[in-house]
Each structure stands twice: as C-alpha cells, then as structure tokens.
Design brief:
Blueprint lengths: L13 H7 L5 E4 L2 E2 L10 H13 L6 H4 E3 L6 E3 L8 H17 L8 H13 L1 H5 L8 H15 L3 E4 L26 E5 L3 E8 L10 E4 L15 E6 L5 E5 L22 E11 L3 E4 L19 H25 L6 H26 L14 H22 L9 H5 L1 H10 L7 H15 L2 H12 L4 H11 L3 H10 L11
Parallel strand pairs: 1-10, 5-8
Antiparallel strand pairs: 1-2, 3-4, 6-7, 7-11, 8-9, 9-12, 10-11
Amino acid sequence: MVLDTQRPEGAMTGERYIKSLQDGREVFLDGRQVADVTTEPAFAPMIKELARIYDLQHTDEYRDEMTYESPDTGNRVSLSWMIPESLEQTRAKRRNSEIWNEQLWGQLGRGPDILAPYILMLYNRRDALGQVKNPNCDFRENIINYTHLCRENDLFLTHALGDPQVDRSLQPQNERRTVKEEDLALHVVEETKDGIIVTGGKQLSTAAHMTNETYVSLSATFARRADPKFYMAFSIASGTPGLKTLVREPVGMWQGTYGHPFLALDEQDAMLFFDNVLVPWDRVFMLYEPPPTGLGPGLGGGLNLLGWSNMCRVHFRMKLMTAVTTMIAKAIGVYDFREVGAKLGEMVSYCELWRYAMAGVEETTYIKDGVQPVGSAAALQNWFAFTSQRMVQLMREVCGSGIIMQPSEADLANPDIRKYLDLYMRGKDVDVEYKSRLYRIAHDLAASSFGMRQDIYEYWHAGDPTRNRVNMLRAYDQSDMIERIEELISKPLPHGEQL
C-alpha cells in the first residue's frame, strides 16, 4: 500500500493525540491487557500532560516558537520536523526543544521532540540508503514518503533498537558462537506481496504505549549480524496487529496524600513482542544488508540533527536539580557551610559547563548538502551519563535523611499532630509546609523509584558508555600531537635546553 500523505492535519492537538491512541493496540500491564491506554490510571496523567503541550502549539503565545509553515502544504507543522537550512532555523529548533523541556521539567527522555530527528537524519541520507536495491520497494522513496507523513501529521514516535537481554554471549551478531541460538532477536520470517513478516523481541522501547509509531532498527551496541535476516530498519504503527507491548511496573503511582508532582511524568518503558507482524513494503528502510558506508547502526550517520532535543532536556534537568538542592540547603540552614557550598558549587559548575557547551555546539553549526546541523555533541552525551549520577549523589548528601522522612498533606492538616510538626519539622525561617513540599520534589528526583529510573535511564540513554568512550577514542584525531611527540623522541632527548 502507499502511504496516505494526501490529507495532512498539521501540528498535533491534544484531542487528536488522545484519539490517535485509541486504536486497539495490545498493551499489557501487570498481567492484564489494558482496554484503553488513555484512561488507564498508570498512563493517563502523562498522556494528558502531553495533550496539554500539544495544544500549546496552537496558542498565540507559542505558535511561532513551536511551529512553522510547511513548505509542501502551507499547514502549521511542528518545528521538531524542520530540517534546518540556516543558523536562524537551527536556533528556532533549539527554542522549540527548550519549550518542550521547560513544560516537562526536563524529565522525558522520549518526548515527541526526541525521535523526529532520527527520521530527519534518515531523510537526509535517503540517497545513500537508496543505493541498496530491493525488487519489492525503493528505500529512498519510502523514507521520503514517511518523513512527509510524520511531518505533515506531527506523529509521535519512539524507537526500539536493542535485542532481548537473554544470553548476551549468544547474540545474532556474535559470529564466533558455536551453537545457533534461538531466534529471539527480531528477524524476517518470510516475504509476502504486501511486506515482510517479522518475529522476535525488542527492548527497551520507552513510551511505546503512548506513541503513534515505533521506529525499529539496530542498536549500536549489537549492530553486527552474522545472518542477513536480522538486518532491517522500518517504522510501524503502534496499533499494528501482532505487535504486543509489555509495560514495566509504574513508578509514577503513589498512594496517600504525600504529593509527588514529578511522578505524573512517568513516560514508562516497554518490551515489544512481534508475533508474525506484517511490515508493509513502503515502511521498510533497510533490509538484509548492513547500512551503507557512512551510516551508523541507527541509520542516522553524518549530520547531528539530534542535538537540541536531548541537550535542552539535560540542561533543564541539571538546573532543576541544582535549584532544588540549593533551596533545601537554605531551608535547613546549611547553605553557608563550607562543605555544602562546595557541593552546590560543583553542581553549578556542571550547569555552566553544559551551557558553555551548548553555545559551542551552536557556534560550530555548518552547512552540508544544504542542511545546517549543530556541531557534534557525542562527548557531552557520554559525559552526562556519569555527571547525572554525581548530581543525584550531591543532592542526597545535601538533603541528608530528610529526603526520606517528611509529613504528608494529610499529616499537615491533622490538628492532633500539627503542633509537633510545626515544632520539630520546620526549617530555618521556613514553615513545615514549605520544607516538606520542597523535600517531596527532592525525593522525586533522587530517592523515589521514579528518580532511580531516571538515573538508570540517563546512564544508558546514549548507549553503552564504555563502548561510547572506546568509539570516541578511535575516532579522535591525535595525529598532529603524535607526530610531534614521535619527532621529539626520534633522537636523544635534550637536557636543560629549550625544546
């Protein structure tokens, strides 16, 4: 079938987004199939929050900062889908990413602004992918049509890249294996006139239960394949028959009246099970062969169009953690302690280093093939995998035991106990209400199951940090310095003389 791009609807609205999720998708949570993800208590708060932000795109305040006029239809479409051709457009995309992350407090690693750049990078490499020929479809044409569909309808995507974590010593990319493992990783079962039939598992697909589409490709960690049936990239509607989504235990549900504002921002993570799923030929972007030279496993390659979505999120998250920790230090009277000031100063230094880096990334934008992407941010993403953990630790150290012991809203409202709370649980120049609520935010970020999930997510967000460091080493050009050192040691070293 041919993708229907003839009835574009433009930038997403909240109502349209909610209706789009009511498509009969098979989502499982805690042993049961969810009838409607939009009304499920574990999912509804996050979905409603995204719907609210989608509606912001149509307001007078945000319309020009979040949307632009489509060059094809004239409709207002999301800036997330713009391929920047100038520094002005690059900065406009940055502002759109800032708004998404300001509204979501920097807590969503898989918001609607995140995956659009993956498809845009595919689009930018359409000619290279088109060099791989298949008798059933044209990969280049598929990418063009699919990008148009996504942009003109503002579709929300997630991705699924990793193989099931069963036995990593027997993975499909391990050519040295002596025993053929079960076909657990996603693979092609057969071809039909309508498309390919695929079976297997994929992890970890964050937000899969509340997206319109899932982009499926290969993880950079497990990209090598000994069998061509494991090489593929495609995108598929989240409600496709045979696609089953198992969502993890919610970390955003809380009993009682304690008040945890960030727990509503649980984007959820999921396993995807493909049970003889038909992928139409016009949704296939790569099949049976490794990506063309110059394209990474995720098929983006080349240009850094991912920059702002993640960089803005990280920056807001850093500033939020620093501000909350600073406010708590003042609330419990330790702000002027030298060792506490050093911890807060360390957190501030991370915020400032990230701000400097964002300015540098913007400054190093360049024109290539008519596109102006931002400069490389690979080192930054890997650096934050470790910096995030350090900031969480600093917050815990400043907060002390108060992060795990605070009264609830019902406690505060109980006159039989309130006098004790006012006496024993107040802070320095702040009452118990202010202090307890502030600590609840810190608890969300650094002590709750939500906070722990965020910490783990940040560590693995850009892939295996160790692999990333090794890849950076191998890609880093040290030739000039090495040549100078080799010249220096090619003869007896000077002693007490000027080099």
